[in-house]
Amino acid sequence: MSQNVNQPASKRLADYRAPAFLIPELSLSFRLVPTATIVTACSRVVRNGAHNEPLVLDGEDLELLEASINGQSVAVQQQPGKLLLETDLDEFELTLVTRINPQDNSTLEGLYMSDGAYCTQCEAEGFRRITYFLDRPDVLAKYNVRIEAPVAFKYLLSNGNKVDSGELEDGWHYACWQDPFPKPSYLFALVAGDMDLLEDSFCTVSGRNVKLQVFVDKGNLHKAHHAMASLKKAMAWDEHRFGLEYDLDIYMIVAVDFFNMGAMENKGLNIFNTKYVLADEQSATDDDFHGIESVIGHEYFHNWTGDRVTCRDWFQLSLKEGLTVFRDQEFSSDVGSRPVNRIHAIKVIKNQQFAEDAGPMSHPIRPEEVIEMNNFYTVTVYNKGAEVIRMMHTLLGEEGFQAGMKLYFARHDGQAVTCDDFVQAMQDASGKDLTQFRRWYSQAGTPQVSVTDSFDTDAGIYRLQLTQNTPQRPGEPAKLPLHIPFSLELLDCQGNTLLNEVLDFTEAEQAFEFTGIHTPVVPSLLQDFSAPVRLDYQFTVEQLLVLMAHASSEVARWEASVTLFSQAVWKNVARLQQQQGMVLDNRIIDGFRGVILSDGLDHALAAEILKMPSVSTLMEQVSEVALDALLCARDYVVDSIATACEEEVLARYQVLHNIDDAGSRAFGNALLTLLARGADGHEALLERQFYHATNMTEALGALSAAVEGNSDCRDALLAAFEQRWNKVPLVMDKWFSLQANINAPDVLQRLQQLQQHPAFSMGNPNRVRALLGTFAAANVAQFHRADGAGYRFMTEIIKQLNSSNPQVAARIITPLIQFGKLDAQRQQQIRQCLQQLLALPDLSRDLYEKVTKALQA
Ligand code: TRP
Ligand code: ZN
After folding, report:
1. Which of 293, 429, 543, 608 could disulfide-pair with 403, CB 3.0 to 4.6 Å?
2. pTM metric for this prediction
3. 759 C-alpha vs ligand 2 centroid, how far in Å?
4. Ligand 1 within 6 A of 261 CB?
5. One domain, residues 92 and 140
């Protein structure tokens, strides 16, 4: 299954060459048989420029049955992953017949089967598992597709419009699809199966009627309505905010159970992980509902930023992904809470992207060298990429940014282009010089911005001294200063706003002066995380309390609470290391008490503040971490706040808990978690909320509070939950995740037992991520156990997945390769595990790339 390559080669951006041939048209015909599907591909091939090179096509795990040029059988040369054809012709018709085995395709790339239905996943390089082709995004073809299958496969779907269908002999039928828009092979899709169908329609601004279809597994129709409503919202929003209208007469979404990622933007036929489609209040949480809205939006927005204008090569992935994440974030913020959405996006950068950038897989948002492309669908390319787009939006303003988008589409509609083309359109449309700004595309690493300030009382001048520095790693060129939009609010000590502006911070060291300031200043720095950098400024507790209560930006209030909490944790880490007892300043407790009692604060925001920074957030703040002391100090600070504020928490919980909106449910759940962690434990309250819950948000809130509090009722509640939900895989994922997070030494045995549970399957990526991915990524205390048992457990899992699904294996290995800040003993244990993986005889390219980079570090 996986490629056995001893030393897989890397590809470089610097080596990009235009394709030697183009394929403007492709006819594909499928005869679907589970273990022996026949694919006939008929390409019109055109030589690109004057040269005598052979035609070299990509292909993986294919059995070639026939090859002909203009109807004449032709000799071909097969090399690993390639097919070579020598010809003098400048234009010809190439017909290739191949046989593939969707049934046994456990990689979930190319054509495979999910619960009895056929489906495809071609991004990034999966099309080459369907037929030999120029499988690269700068080869754009018009597709004609014919699908034949037994009539039991009721729906036969592909991209574009259905142009023909009918009966065949022996209980078979067929359908033909035509996509009028030329597209790269990674956007091809096919689905064949019997599903339930939810239909609706959308009338576009220009008055065209678009048919909308959502296909789900039988029996799940009632769970498809939120996805449909989200799609209609997304279509209206893209017209309104970006002036972009849908371009085909039909838009289809198919939800499948077996899927490596979240969803895929195939032209006119999106394929989704069921996790991002199916929801009702009984089985899905408020967060699930938001996740669906955001991913439905994301894939829909790709229709323009991805499909109509695509990437020239895979190094340009952020062209479509960074931009589309920015667009989906804006969508969620316009239809929901802007500050809460911003906080979620900031957390992804600070917890995950900073870690990636400090680890062995660090890369710029436009990578320069890649072994396995699947390894570069990263938080750097997607989420830091979105931050880079957001900075341009900040620098240009909404109007300048929209002018840039218009020019981008005017220039590049129907083309495969580069990140540079995008920035150039932004620059030309706005007149803003983005020369220095472009360094964000080529420099990896997280810039460190240090701030000092001084106040000249007599002159009424406040001075800010900013320095920036991006760490340079071995082998990297020296890092140059970046163009950083630095958003700033100055407040007085009573919390009144003195000034609000965005500084253009472009030099390694730069000073800014503010005159007419006659009172001591509290600075709110890098407001709303105006650039993806680490900020270093010595805030006093008083300043943070002012910001927490009064900063104009709600995100800045949350940031202040994170800093306040973090300072308390690090202070206690230091005390533990000096064998001193732990302490917590009453002013800090009062700061959080203020949030618990506050009337003015939005409930969803209060919930975010009361969740308090996770261990991984804290780990990202330092370059070396004493893990045991950190875990101990964090528990101490949370428990101290929970215990000191118990009365207020209880009172607030009791008023809140009957208010019926998502923000209040989130606030209520955060309070319940504090109650579970406090001195009393409040078992009765946990049980009451769990057993009387009218929706999943409340039930899961109680259950997860019981897990976090290691409450006596925990196992009884878990058992009751299983009883009720054991037939619903997506809900069982929540149950698996919760248990993977239990902080107790026997969690490894529990994980082993759960792998035997009837609802678990190593072949399903959602199950694997829920149970095993969660353990490695979220259960810091047990995964990083000092005896190394957590590492060894995950290594065995990764070995299994290496051969069945290398993509998933390479994703869940992440916590095992980011070991740079751990102590020497843990690093040594991890290295031994990685050595074992490296010694595997059939190590996939995906794992090879990550393991070798980690071991070199
Ligand atoms: N383009 C998809 C998205 O961001 C990502 C994706 C879906 C993907 N499936 C994949 C990427 C498989 C790599 C491999 O919406
Ligand atoms: Zn995407």
Report:
1. 429
2. 0.98
3. 29
4. yes
5. yes
